[in-house]
Amino acid sequence: MLSEKTMQIVKSTAPVLKERGTEITSCFYERMFKAHPELKNIFNMSRQQTGGQPKALAYTVLQAAENIDRLEALLPVVKQIGHKHKSLQVKPEHYPIVGKHLLEAIEAVLGEAATPDILQAWAEAYEEIARVFIDIEKQMYEEAKKEGAWEDFKPFVVLEKRRESETITSFYLKPADGSDLPEFTPGQYVSVRIKIPGEQYFLTRQYSLSDAWNKDYYRISVKLEAEEGQPKGKVSSYLHEEIEAGSSLEVSAPAGDFSLSGQTDKPVYFISAGSGITPVMSMAKTLAAQESGREITFVHAAKSEKHQAFKEEAEKLVSGNPNNRLLFIYSQASEAPAEHAVKGRLNEDLLKTIVKDQDGEFYVCGPLSFMKSVIEGLQKLGVPTENIRYESFASSLEMQIAN
């Protein structure tokens, strides 16, 4: 237990962390990678370069400082980060390394303002925070083991590679040892680790499982990250251009807390954009296969019909119930869209025509700006916040920062 004095000192640092937090975390990552370059095998170095990861960590540190006297308030965020750590194989032995370099970064950035009392208080606070993470992640590892999941990364073979749209390609993955695959929760993701020729370290990325569970294969569907004026994504472009049926990949066990709720007969709304269709496709296919009779409204926004993935699958999954609805929204349609589609964007007026029951369950996934717009629109329509679940591929932490 932390002393009252320690908690008060840590809370008193919140204003400076709010102002200089990203500066501290950027310094932290620079120092840690210099001392432990092997950790570049775990971290997404692209997010280091864009500043997304330092910003997300700065937000987490600030939240820890503001809530140090009631860490239970952080449990939802801790569990979310814990799932990511589990998928990357972060272990207890990594936490002392992080703590050492975080304290050094605080001292380096704040200079004389980082008094011995502040550094000691943060050392004690970090130990307490790390213990919470380690305990939760230990429980996650143990639960996964009971459910038949594997530890670390496991060799898989690509059974099939299928182009779903102009930018999204699916990979059907089977364990190289031929073993059956454990069940996962619809909405979860796996980490894929590859060694690209010319790269010094492993590159690891998370991809949502895009199909309902079966024991024979997992399916991931990868968007080619190649926006105009931006460098191509190293991993997505390698998967699209170099990986074929018969290729080998290393895959972690499923993780993630963006999941389909059970034990209810409420109507369910799946609202996605771009590659955000992947986890909700897994959810929708699972729900449709259960034949529970729940009404499904499936809405997806894309640039055009060429960018629309899983068109036939989506049409099939809503066909089992006359009350189900399907809507594709194309922002750059060159001609009159086909059946189930409209031209435009998912704005507040269109959202009004979609939402028939504010007490339904809403699952939202896509780019950050899309997420904010949809969630704000749903709230204006009277949908309770607790009925909205979301997954942002930018980062759920960045979603909270933006809010």
UniProtKB/TrEMBL annotation:
Its cofactor is FAD; heme b. It comes from Bacillus sonorensis L12. GO terms for molecular function: FAD binding; heme binding; metal ion binding; nitric oxide dioxygenase NAD(P)H activity; oxygen binding; oxygen carrier activity. It is an enzyme of class 1 (oxidoreductase). GO terms for biological process: cellular response to nitrosative stress; nitric oxide catabolic process. CDD domains: flavohem_like_fad_nad_binding (cd06184), Yhb1-globin-like (cd14777). It catalyses: 2 nitric oxide + NADH + 2 O2 = 2 nitrate + NAD(+) + H(+); 2 nitric oxide + NADPH + 2 O2 = 2 nitrate + NADP(+) + H(+). Residues 1-138 form the Globin domain. Its EC number is 1.14.12.17. In the C-terminal section; belongs to the flavoprotein pyridine nucleotide cytochrome reductase family. Belongs to the globin family. Two-domain flavohemoproteins subfamily. PANTHER family: FLAVOHEMOPROTEIN. This is Flavohemoprotein. Keywords: FAD, Flavoprotein, Heme, Iron, Metal-binding, NAD, NADP, Oxidoreductase, Oxygen transport, Transport.
